[in-house]
Amino acid sequence: CTARMGLLEMNFTHALSKVQVEISRQDDADLEGITLQSVSLVHCSADGKLDILSGEWSDMDTDAELFISEQETVVTDKPEMLKEGTDDAYALIIPNETSKDLISLHIHLTTANGQPKEFTYPLYASPVIAADDEISDPEPFIFEQNHRYVLSVILLDEGVRVLAVSPQAYDWIDVSVDTYMGQPVNFGGLMW
Predict the structure, then answer these.
(1) What is the spatial distance between Cα 121 and Cα 105, in angstroms, rounded to a whole number?
(2) Is it the case that residue 119 has pLDDT exceeding 80?
């Protein structure tokens, strides 16, 4: 809380992280007709209780659903943000800032011939690739509070790859509206 020119500024940060997925497939005839069934984050919570005084989370669930297809969602060779109706699909997750749990992206899809397939792709901060293509001593990707993340995913012949993770600070109030003051509230005899 700071006071400036007679105005009381109250800066808030969101306790959660916002995650979205942009998905495409390799431009390959064998991958045409793939439909997406669901996308989730494994070992990542979307529900829990926050103790405001300590900042600690409790009673957390284990997986966060990002997307569940209610209609046929065909994966194309052009990157597209996952949608729920006309809106972008997203999950608000509990940040893993202090956790060393390795969060994975789980994708469930159906091939053109109707075969179900599932892929789990671990999210690393900066994997160290050894000479034998094994990942050694990887650091788990850390989701921070008050940030928005877009996971750019591509489906390949041999599986799934996360091409990029684009983090950005996610402001609680849209800063592009300079004159927004909200609705005044009377509290304790003062107008806020």
Answers:
(1) 5
(2) yes
Which residues have C-beta within 8 Å of that of residue 163, sequence separation ≥ 6?
Answer: 152, 153, 154
Q: Which two tokens stand for residue 54?
A: 């300590």
What are the beta bridge partners of residue 84? 87
pLDDT at 176: 47
CA 130, chain centre distance (Å): 28
> Collapsing DSSP states into helix, strand and coil, what is residue 75?
coil
Compute the CA torsion angle 26, 30, 33, 34 (nearest 10 deg).
Answer: -60
Query: Hey, what are 32's tokens?
Result: 């045409």
Half-sphere exposure of 38 (CA within 13 A, CB side): 11
The amino acid occupying position 101 is D
Question: CA end-to-end span of the chain, whole Å?
Answer: 12
